[in-house]
Amino acid sequence: MRARTIFCLVALLTGSQLTGNGLLSAFTESTASTTASIAVTGADGGETDPQQDDELVDPALRASAKRVEALTNGLKGAWRLVRFHPAAPAADPAQASGLLLVGDNILTIQLQTVPQQTTSRLPEPVVQVGAHYWRIGPLETLELASVTGFDNASGDVRFEPSLEPREYVPTIVGTRLVLAKPDGTRLEFDRFDVNSFPPQAIRFVEAMRAGRNLDDLRK
Prior knowledge:
Blueprint: H1 2-15, H2 21-39, H3 50-57, H4 59-75, E1 77-85, E2 95-102, E3 106-114, E4 126-136, E5 142-151, E6 158-159, E7 165-173, E8 176-180, E9 186-191, H5 199-209, H6 215-218
Antiparallel strand pairs: 1-2, 1-9, 2-3, 3-4, 4-5, 5-6, 5-7, 7-8, 8-9
């Protein structure tokens, strides 16, 4: 029985021509096939996109990706509004103040403007407050989608719908940030340090506790 089993096994190998070099050749072909399969398979087991590989080596796309990364990192922090220019035909406001705080995925903005006085009646301040998702998109613009917010630009308080979009062209030069829109709106901010409690603020707190007039410290 044992001799018959060995004879059958030898006959099977011989008939398949997998003796000697045949076995090595079959193993090599199998390995090459497996390697080729791995080469077109992504880390998650799905197939890779050859066009995606081409994009990684395209100099223009690489340069754009670097600018997107630089703007994304450069925007993070605290910014104080120093100038606001509205879209035409509106005139520049008599006064403007604001704050922009940019985190990893959410930014908050607060703007207050007082329009130029054109009648005997004092103009009402215009306030805009909001929190937004943000990113630097593929067009290298600042894309916003509202989380929550309101403004009274129309005279009545208006609450923003969820995910209401906005888009600005950002420019950062040193500590100056400019956000511009195609309609001519332009907001200019200066970066300021929020990594510590300002020494001047400590003096204001101490003066408040002592009951002193804080206007004396502002002179």
